[in-house]
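Subject: Re: docking follow-up (flavin-adenine dinucleotide)

Dear J.,

Thanks for your patience while I sorted out the input files. As discussed at Tuesday's group meeting, I've set up the holo structure prediction with flavin-adenine dinucleotide included as the bound ligand rather than trying to dock it afterwards. The sequence and the ligand SMILES I used are pasted below, so you can double-check that they match what you have on your end before we go further.
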Amino acid sequence: MAAPAYLELPSTGFEQGVTDIQRDILQLSRQFAADVMRPNGAILDRMTPEEVIGEGSLYWTTLLRYKELGFNVAAFAAIPLAEAADAKAMIYEELGWGDSGLAIAIGAGALPHTMAARWGRLDLLEAFPDTMLGCWGITEPVAGSDMLDWTREAGHPQADYSRPSLVATLKGDQVILNGQKAAWVSNGTTAQFCTLFTTFDRGQGREGVNIYVPLDLPGISRGKPLDKMGQRALPQGEIFFDNVAVPTRLIAAGPERYADAVYDILCEANAGMGACFVGVARAAYEHALAYAHERKQGGVPIIRHQNVRYRLFHMLRKIEAARALARRVFRFNDLSGTRALQASIASKITGTQTAFEVANEALQMFGGNGMTCAYPLEKLLRDARASLIEDGCNEMLAIKGGSLLVDTSLL
Ligand SMILES: Cc1cc2nc3c(=O)[nH]c(=O)nc-3n(C[C@H](O)[C@H](O)[C@H](O)COP(=O)(O)OP(=O)(O)OC[C@H]3O[C@@H](n4cnc5c(N)ncnc54)[C@H](O)[C@@H]3O)c2cc1C
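The structure tokens for the complex came back this morning:
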């Protein structure tokens, strides 16, 4: 009788056993990352932000090709929870390995569907089927970190939040939106709908509302696509709202549930980031390992230097630790019936910090070649750098994560 997959002798000692379904998913996503995402991401990286979102660009074809893989809410619902949780973390890692900008475009595009499914909102899933591209609009010009920290664990006690950039008001059975979201909204220039998190002014103090907004409504306009240093395949830009009327039935969370909704979506997004940037770190490590075998100095491959092996080992060690944490957090969030933001934050910080450190070390291993655009390291380092800010600056997230550990009776 064949040994169960998890008992097979691993080749590195770090492998996690995979089920048949997971093996298929892994193979599909790995191939997609290698054949589609990596080459397309490298080309998009050299384009202007306007070219990236141009009709028929590789950004669009990559999103379409990803849909064909069938990795959607319904498919994951059809397999056992634990298998699905691991598989999702594996997919995010592979996508990040391929190209983190495109990975985030895919992840942010699907985030509203995922949240609607988590909250059992079949009406929202029907109104915004997963053939539509989504985005998550929460940060604002006047409140980047602060919008992600709605419950103010990290906020400064003297900070003034009385002038938000975007305000929702109620008029009959419609929510009226006026203002704008930050230039950072992933897919902000391209998405067809937005899960919008914003201040709700009902004359009852500081309140928030999460509402699903079709982005073709009258009064909505988009900003100029953002030109930035990393994750250039990911389009970002402002969304402006001028007296935009959205039916109240599209509210996903009113003021009573708003803080929970922010908590939930940050849990989901931070966990995805953690797994995705393990993929970026792995890509950098693989390049460094191969280069160390190929590059000769004084006639010997540089891998023969002890210090080179030492550095490679620390890269590998960090990646394996980040991956183990990322998968554990996916499992907890999907299986436990509750969610732990401090765990998702830990995974996000660990994955992104690992990606940055490993990409930096890998670039160093390439010597002067690492600096040139002919080699992949400079792009990986730029992509990893953005991740330390994305989905919440790591410093603010750490303060928030730490605050969630405090026994409030001691305060
Ligand atoms: C690649 C990328 C993708 C993104 N995608 C999205 C998206 O899809 N949707 C969206 O809405 N936003 C998105 N963002 C925005 C992102 O969440 C914000 O950039 C981030 O939350 C920081 O906000 P900010 O840029 O306004 O910086 P600020 O909040 O102005 O922070 C500036 C500095 O001050 C520090 N700081 C601020 N407040 C605190 C605090 N309370 N405690 C300690 N330090 C603090 C920060 O750590 C940082 O170093 C994205 C950003 C990037 C880079």
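A couple of observations from a first look. The radius of gyration is 22 Å. The chain is about 50% helix and 15% strand.

Let me know if you'd like me to rerun anything.

Best regards,
T.
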